[in-house]
Write a structure and sequence with these properties.
This protein is an all-alpha fold. Helix content is about 85%, strand content about 0%.
Length: about 220
């Protein structure tokens, strides 16, 4: 079993009691998905609100934004588990989940880009933009391939990895600021996590495109 699959199964076991509790009180998968989206909007709001403080040397809002990104990420797992365990799966639910996932990524990374641009961190802002493009293309290429009847799920930088890397990077940045204060390297801790997402999400997108091409060639 891959490390990613092992970690996923471990988290499922941890959250299953909570999932069953949600089902008992009548919470639907779409409600969970919506809550997750709203938490991502709140995370973006923290970056936007904290941008003026960043210019004063206060990076603490980055840490709080990272915490909320990770917390919202739990709801990405909860909605699927509520649907499976509660036998509430539906085609629209799957589509709704995918659509709000894309909105969530655009909103969060949009907030991060605003934070960097407001503070004139143009290199970090550009890296965040590349991360946004790569993240969207990973999902788009999969959707387009599956629309053509091609299974296309491979690649390292899928949504859970992107959420964890960005969230942890932001959280660690906030923690480093708490202990080290206003130091330039503290901000680059967060930027480095976005650089990882930017590079590997685009590699994943290109890999999925190449995989789809090979499958199409064998179908001729």
């Amino acid at each position: 079993m891959k490390a990613r699959d092992w970690a996923q199964q471990f988290i499922y076991k941890v959250i299953d009691p909570f999932v069953r509790g949600l089902i008992k009180i009548g919470v639907t998968p779409n409600v969970v998905t919506t809550i997750g989206f709203l938490l991502n909007v709140a995370a973006a709001g923290i970056f936007v609100y904290g941008a003026p403080y960043g210019s004063e040397g206060d990076y603490s809002y980055i840490g709080w934004g990272g915490f909320l990104i990770l917390f919202a990420g739990l709801f990405d797992m909860l909605d699927g588990q509520v649907a499976r365990i509660g036998k509430m799966s539906s085609k629209f639910g799957a589509m709704y989940d995918s659509v709000l996932d894309r909105y969530s990524e655009m909103v969060v990374l949009g907030g991060i880009i605003y934070y960097f641009m407001y503070n004139h961190f143009f290199v970090a802002g550009f890296i965040s933009l590349v991360a946004l493009v790569g993240s969207i293309m990973v999902s788009y290429i999969r959707a387009r391939a599956e629309g053509l009847g091609i299974e296309c799920k491979g690649g390292f930088m899928q949504r859970p990895e992107r959420v964890v890397i960005m969230g942890v990077g932001a959280l660690v940045c906030g923690i480093c600021y708490h202990f080290a204060g206003f130091e330039e390297w503290v901000l680059w801790v967060f930027t480095a996590s976005l650089l990882i997402v930017a590079i590997f999400s685009n590699i994943t997108a290109i890999g999925r495109l190449n995989h789809s091409r090979r499958v199409m060639e064998t179908q001729k």
